[in-house]
Amino acid sequence: MRMLIIGGGKAGWNLARALLERRHTVGLIEKDRARCAQLADDLDAAVYPGDGTRVELLEAAGAQDADCVMVVTGVDQDNLVAAQLAQNYFHAGKVIVRVNDPRNTETFRALGIHNVVSSTDILTKMIEQAADSAHLHLIASLNQGKGEICSMTLPEDTAWAGAPLMDMKVPKGSLVISIIRGGQLIIPNGSTALAPGDELVAVSEEKSKKALRRTLSETR
Q1: Contact indicator for 200, 151 with CB cutoff of 8 Å
Q2: What is the average per-residue pLDDT within 98-121?
Q3: Which pTM does this prediction carry?
Q4: Where are the domains of the chain?
Q5: By CB neighbour count within 10 A (0-12 exposed, 13-18 middle, 19+ buried), where does 173 fall?
Q6: CATH (residue range 2-117)
Q7: In CATH terms, are 2-117 and 131-217 the same topology?
Q8: Cα separation of 60 and 90, whole Å?
Q9: Domain 131-217 part of CATH 3.30.70.270
Q10: Is residue 149 a contact partner of residue 176, using CB atoms and an 8 Å limit?
Q11: What is the dihedral of CA 77, 80, 81, 86, to 10 degrees?
Q12: Where are the alpha helices (DSSP H) in 61-142?
């Protein structure tokens, strides 16, 4: 696949290296000419010196043919402009943009850039998960973090031992989709009886996650 990275800092360098290792074709745009020389020495990638918000440079770098454009400069204003050009002017296959200030995330999305990544938000959610959901494990994030697939093992003294799933007060916005018991996968229905040690896998909206944890954690 043809990948174009805008921003040759630490994030851009690591992205380029990882993509090259996976045998993608990589182009990289960076403003600082001294940094460009270093990138060209380090990476087997086409390096373009200049401003990634300029139409002619994006065209020269092949934004119009890119399967994915990743915008990771250290300036959110530049990231927004470059992402809008890649998406709306060059119609790149996919555009992913980093926000340095997480307060800008919703602004980017409101302006039509939907694949927005905030390192601060990701770290915060990981810390919150460790602190507030010690026994609720994230399997996958859905819809830019608005939903999650997660799992939790019922404790030995669970309040739900022997109870049918329909009796569990699963909060609105959450749904138990499978049970793993003794290494076997069970697709449950409302009459499926629960047992200590069952690993329940659920899909949940972000706002329902804490209530789901409290429910699954209930003991006798």
Answers
A1: yes
A2: 89
A3: 0.61
A4: 2-117, 131-217
A5: middle
A6: 3.40.50.720
A7: no
A8: 12
A9: no
A10: no
A11: 160
A12: 76-84, 105-110, 119-132
Question: Strands 184-186 and 199-205, how do they pair?
Answer: unpaired
Pull the structure tokens for residue 93.
Answer: 């296959």
Using alpha carbons, select from 106, 83, 105 the residue that is nearest to residue 96: 83
Tell me which residue has tokens 């302006």. 111
Q: How far is CA 122 from CA 76, 99, 126, 188, 202, in A?
A: 17, 12, 6, 32, 21
Share the mean pLDDT of the chain: 91
> b/e for 93-119, b at 16 or more Cβ within 10 A?
eebbbbbeeeebbeebeeeebebbbbe
User: Which stretch of 4-18, 123-137, 170-184, 187-201 has the lowest confidence by average pLDDT?
Assistant: 123-137
CA distance 43 to 3: 14
| Residue pair 9/72 in contact by the 8 Å Cβ criterion | yes
Spell out the residues 6+ positions from residue 4 whose beta carbon is closer than 8 angstroms to its own: 26, 27, 28, 29, 61, 62, 63, 66, 68, 69, 70, 86, 92
